[in-house]
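--- STAGE predict ---
source: upstream dedup step, 1 unique chain passed
mode: sequence only
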Amino acid sequence: MQYLLLIYGSDEEWAALDADEQRGIYARYGELERELNAAGAITGGAELRPAATATTVRVRNGETLVTDGPFAETREQLGGFFQVECGSMKEALEIARRIPTAEHGAVEVRPQHVRAEA
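--- STAGE serialize ---
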């Protein structure tokens, strides 16, 4: 089963870290990603640009509304994701626990919907 590990953190808290602290966190991400690649568990992932660069699209009553920024004002924003192949939710949760941002933000673990072939 594939799981999406949605990584939420604070853009402001990240920006407040000094360059050495940021490099240290990136190093931990790199180590985890190399390990997941070696195990064949990672199927995708990316770091996202800050939430301030987002654009949100809504369609209401046939009218398209486009606004700058994320869909809601929150302290934590979606900052990236890993897509992983795991045998169980327990395995996906173990990987999520090891994501550095889980220590000061949050990691949402969601199983992907499997569509029946038409």
